[in-house]
């Protein structure tokens, strides 16, 4: 098997590949798809080169065929011209020149037959290679379609994998931050704030109680001061009365 035949065989094999079945069977679909993309890309490049060479060979055959057909037509015109000239010489009684141009006509006819045979012999090869080229082009187009499918499936798979990973990270984060869980960080922080708020309320009540006591002491002090004042007045009054009694005696 030639290298070209091997390439064409790989084209047929890859073009028939069932991508979905391959994905289902793969342990790591993404790695499998990456490898398939590389295989397809490499084989497509090889196939394009081989098909280009095949088309080139076909075009050479077609060129040769056209040249043979053109040569046959040209030799036919030359044979006709030589035969016509021979007839003119023969009509004039010049048999020597007539025979000469008839001989030339035969040579031209021989060349015409050769060119026609060469053109005819090339036609089956041209038809066969034309059919092969069309099949190869179709196979190559199928491979390129498969490659596009592979790339699309791979990209979708990668996107889904990233989405699943992101969702998993979100779920893990939600497990660590649960505002309804009193044992969570937020729950403990809320408890700390509530305790601090309660302490502040207690301090306020304590301060208010101390202030009331101070005002009560001020009222008590006021009462004592009044008592002292009245006592002093009594004493002052008592002294004046005593002096008055003594002076009377």
Tags for this model:
mainly alpha, 249 residues, 5 helices
Q: How is the topology of this model organized?
A:
Blueprint lengths: L2 H13 L3 H7 L3 H63 L3 H82 L8 H64 L1
Brief summary:
With 249 residues, the protein is mainly α.
Task: Walk me through the structure.
The chain has 249 residues and is mostly helical. The protein contains 5 helices and no strands. The longest helix is centred in the middle third of the chain and has 82 residues, at 95-176.
The largest β sheet comes out as: none
Q: Based on the structure, what is the oligomeric state of the protein chains?
A: single chain
Q: Can you tell me the residue ranges where pLDDT is under 50 for at least 5 consecutive residues?
A: 241-249
Q: What's the total helix number?
A: 5
* Helix and strand composition category: mainly alpha
Portion in strands = under 5%
Shape: rod-shaped
Helix percentage: over 70%
């Amino acid at each position: 098997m030639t290298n070209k035949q091997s390439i064409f065989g790989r084209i047929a094999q890859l073009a028939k590949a069932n991508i979905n079945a391959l994905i289902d069977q793969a342990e790591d679909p993404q790695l499998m798809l990456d490898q398939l993309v590389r295989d397809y890309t490499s084989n497509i490049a090889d196939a394009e080169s081989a098909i280009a060479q095949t088309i080139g060979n076909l075009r050479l055959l077609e060129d040769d065929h056209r040249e043979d057909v053109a040569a046959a037509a040209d030799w036919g015109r030359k044979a006709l011209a030589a035969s016509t000239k021979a007839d003119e010489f023969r009509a004039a009684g010049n048999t020597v020149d007539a025979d000469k141009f008839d001989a030339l006509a035969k040579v031209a006819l021989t060349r015409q037959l050769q060119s026609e045979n060469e053109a005819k012999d090339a036609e089956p090869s041209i038809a066969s290679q034309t059919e092969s080229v069309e099949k190869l082009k179709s196979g190559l187009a199928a491979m390129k379609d498969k490659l596009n499918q592979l790339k699309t499936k791979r990209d979708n798979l990668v996107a889904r994998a990233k989405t699943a990973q992101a969702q998993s990270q979100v779920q893990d984060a939600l497990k660590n931050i649960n505002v309804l869980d009193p044992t969570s960080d937020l729950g403990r922080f809320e408890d700390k704030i509530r305790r601090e708020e309660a302490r502040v309320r207690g301090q306020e009540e304590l301060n208010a109680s101390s202030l009331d006591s101070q005002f009560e002491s001020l009222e008590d002090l006021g009462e004592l001061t009044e008592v002292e004042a009245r006592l002093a007045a009594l004493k002052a009054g008592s002294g004046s009365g005593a002096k008055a009694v003594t002076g009377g005696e």
